[in-house]
Amino acid sequence: MTRIGVGATLAATWVFLGLAAGCGGGEAAPAARVERGEAAPGGLWISDTAVLDVETGERAEARDVWIADGRIAGIAGAGSSTPPSGARVLDGAGATLVPGLVDMHGHIYASSLPSWQRGRPDPDGNLVAYLYCGVTTVFDPGDGSGDATARRARVASGEQIGPHILTTGPIHTAPDGHPISVMRAFAPWWIAWYLAPRVAVAVGSEEEAAAAVDAVAADGVDAVKIVIDSIPLDAPVMSPTVARAMVESARSHGLRTVAHIGTTNDAIAAGDAGVALWVHGVYKERIPDEEIATLAGYGIPMVATIEVFDSYARSGSPRAATSLERETVPTAVLESFYPIPGDFDRTALESWLEMDRAAAPARIENTRRLHEAGVTILAGSDTQAGVFPGAGLHRELANLVRAGFTPVEAIRAATLDPARFLAGDEEPDFGSVEVGRRADLLLVEGDPTRDVAALAHIREVIFSGVPLERTPIAEAAVAQR
């Protein structure tokens, strides 16, 4: 096969690094337009809507919901009271009000373009796309841009539009571990030498672990990210001693540690080290029957991220775009994944890709069996090549239903359960439609308790109590002419 040139090598490097670091390759796909509306003086009144209780699964019909000062102020039977003077009224007939979605493995500094296209990530566009698709909170376990906490602050202050962000900042890996190993496989030595310290923090000793955690803690991260996985398959993995040192150092700063894992043994090693969250499922193999109880015994939630690995497994085949992908991504980008250019060489990762394709059924089965064993499964997309911000989470919810979740269980995996984890509280400030909760909400057509796909048919995204003005990419493009 023809070897690719330096430019294409860089593009491939950036995208494959996205498997953990969120540094996708290529110029990020443009997003649809989202703008804040003006808060009405009397708040927001949603009339005659169904309200979903994501904990019990009950869908109460014919409710009026009042929102004031960014919070849910009241829920009552439809018509039993009247909107306050000056309130904006939304007709909720035929719709269901659900909590705003949480992507537990989103990446903001990422690109969703194919591996062979060049450019840079578009974090601003990604933030817009998340909101457009109803993702109102993003946990980003890997942002090596150097701007993660500053970007979080800009969004929190309202200076920049975007969902609520929690971030780990950069990821930490073994010397020459993933994603540094992928970069070395694809990039010339001089590019690898430059990029290695910029895509991940290599940690090879307990002393280096303490120093690395001190650095990210000083930057104000929300958690610490480590990698215990081999990509390519012969890449080194962080040792148990160093992993435990990372966890203990994080705890000394009041921080939890999350772990990228690939195999059953990786998950056990991370659990023994004391991590708080597996940010991938066991995606490389079927979990042995006797180890299901072992993993469940740790009491650690797992973000399955079935979609990202299935997306790579589908490489080389035509892709059918979802409605949200068509609304947020240019048609040319959606069509650019097939066919693969003849001069694009994936030799360095071919064994990993073969494994990924072969393990696709196991990923679904692992998720189903762990869920049945009582492991809390959280929904996350892992935004990168072929996995689009916001739209990718909706694909992941469909995967959870394929894995045996009821639609309500899948919705809870993207609302209340992640809210509880992120808040560290059984009664979080968001993630449910309850009086007093933060008013990050979706008004969706129909009944998502019957079909989770209804979540993609969004009538309104309500962010901090105010409906957003959403314009799909085709209309936004026309308006710019």
How does this model look, in words?
This protein has helices at 6-17, 123-132, 148-157, 180-186, 189-199, 206-219, 240-252, 264-273, 289-297, 306-313, 323-328, 331-334, 350-358, 360-372, 391-402, 407-412, 416-423, 473-480; strands at residues 33-36, 44-52, 59-68, 71-77, 88-91, 95-99, 101-103, 135-140, 164-167, 171-173, 201-202, 224-228, 257-261, 277-278, 302-303, 377-378, 441-445, 458-463, 466-471. It has a single domain (6-32, 98-441), classed as Metal-dependent hydrolases (TIM Barrel, Alpha-Beta Barrel), CATH 3.20.20.140. The chain is globular and about 65 Å long. α1 packs antiparallel against α4 and α7 (240-252) crosses α8 (264-273). With 481 residues, the chain is α/β, with parallel strands linked by helices. Helix content is 35%, strand content 19%.
| Major beta sheet summary | 9 strands, mixed
Q: Which CATH class applies here?
A: Alpha Beta
The unreliable regions are 1-29
How many strands? 19
Structural class: alpha/beta
**What's the overall average pLDDT, rounded?**
91
**Total domain count:** 1
* CATH homologous superfamily descriptor: Metal-dependent hydrolases
Strand content: 15-25%
Percent of residues in helices comes to: 25-40%
Task: Give the terminus-to-terminus CA distance.
Answer: 43 Å
- General shape: globular
The tally of helices reads: 18
Remind me, CATH topology? TIM Barrel
Task: Determine Rg (CA atoms, Å).
Answer: 22 Å
| CATH architect. name | Alpha-Beta Barrel
